[in-house]
Design brief:
The chain is an all-alpha fold. The protein contains four helices and no strands.
Length: 81
């Protein structure tokens, strides 16, 4: 996974919540991203925050859950390497 490709997916995903006026999820995603500081611990904190979003928001559609699961899975794979 290229980091730039990952962030493009993230931006598109986050934008979908802004456009549908579901700002609470968008704010959660932006907060999660704020932990990414180039250090491994920042990426792990970001991963934890994504998992919290996945488990906390019951309004996520199946498609949104699938996208979020893919983002989480890609990140977990890259953090193991």
């Amino acid at each position: 996974m290229e980091v730039s490709d990952y962030w493009k997916k993230y931006e598109a995903f986050n934008q979908s919540f802004k456009q549908s006026d579901r700002n609470e999820i968008s704010i959660g995603l932006e907060d999660a991203r704020s932990y990414v500081n180039g250090l491994t611990d920042g990426w792990h904190e970001y991963l934890l925050r994504l998992k919290e979003i996945r488990n906390s928001f019951t309004t996520l559609t199946n498609s949104e859950l699938e996208t979020l699961d893919k983002m989480i899975s890609e990140l977990e794979t890259n953090l193991k390497n």
